[in-house]
């Protein structure tokens, strides 16, 4: 009987320790965020149009897609925003004129933004981001099937008190087990 209690105690100590370590890593995505996506022109603060379906709550899959009904379908996912250009179009963004998309409503702090594109050239100079927004200034023509993948990296979350409690409980359990 003592052996079974000892094994259960050891198993629960390991569980609480692991839960304390893994809990903070479950955060740092866009899932559950309510994003507002708009097309900005002639500057990022002037909304030419709010896209159909925006604001949208980010979920996995296509049910949260938004579009501007002419040029692009935008699908936000956990850490990536996909832009799929459906028709030929031209954007005239440059150093003085903003012509692109503005994403706001992120609940986690944005640390970095990077791109993967197909059929279009886009550089980091065309992007501005802050703690809770991304602005993509487009300065080129697109053909149908051109795509942009915006990869968003969030800052590490500060563990919530319950995560710290789980971690400390696990440490305490391991310590008590080692003493006995």
* SSE arrangement, N to C: HEEEEEEEEEEEEEH
> How many domain modules?
2
| Contiguous helical run count | 2
Strand residue content? 25-35%
Cα Rg: 23 Å
Mean pLDDT: 78
Poorly predicted spans: 22-26
For the sheet with most strands, the description reads: 6 strands, antiparallel
Give the overall form.
Answer: elongated
- The level of helicity is 10-25%
**What structural class do helix, strand and pairing data support?**
alpha+beta
User: Total strand count, please?
Assistant: 13
Task: Tell me what you see in this structure.
It is elongated and about 70 Å long. The chain is built from 2 helices and 13 strands, in the order αβββββββββββββα. About 3% of the residues have low confidence. Strands 1, 2, 3, 8, 10 and 11 form a 6-stranded antiparallel sheet that branches. A 5-stranded antiparallel sheet has the order 4-5-6-13-9, with no helix packed on it. It folds into 2 domains: 42 residues; 121 residues. The protein is an alpha+beta fold.
Task: Name some characteristics of this structure.
180 residues, five-stranded antiparallel beta sheet, 13 strands, 22% helix
Q: SSE layout and pairings?
A:
Elements: H1 2-22, E1 34-40, E2 47-50, E3 56-57, E4 66-67, E5 72-76, E6 80-85, E7 89-90, E8 100-104, E9 110-118, E10 127-129, E11 133-137, E12 141-142, E13 147-154, H2 161-179
Helix pairs in contact: 1-2
């Amino acid at each position: 009987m003592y052996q079974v209690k000892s094994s259960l105690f050891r198993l629960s100590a390991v569980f609480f320790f692991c839960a304390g370590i893994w809990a903070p890593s479950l955060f740092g995505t866009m899932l559950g965020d309510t994003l507002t996506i708009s097309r900005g022109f002639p500057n990022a603060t002037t909304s030419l149009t709010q896209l159909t379906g925006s604001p949208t709550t980010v979920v996995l899959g296509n049910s949260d897609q938004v579009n501007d009904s002419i040029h692009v379908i935008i699908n936000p996912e956990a850490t990536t925003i996909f832009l799929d250009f459906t028709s030929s179009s031209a954007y005239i963004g440059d150093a003085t004129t903003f012509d692109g998309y503005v994403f706001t409503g992120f609940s986690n702090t944005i640390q970095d933004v990077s791109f993967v594109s197909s059929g279009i050239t886009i550089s980091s100079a065309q992007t501005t981001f802050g703690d809770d927004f991304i602005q993509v200034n487009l300065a080129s023509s697109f053909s149908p099937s051109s795509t942009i993948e915006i990869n968003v990296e969030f800052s590490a979350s500060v563990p919530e008190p319950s995560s710290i409690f789980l971690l400390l409980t696990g440490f305490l359990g391991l310590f008590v087990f080692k003493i006995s």
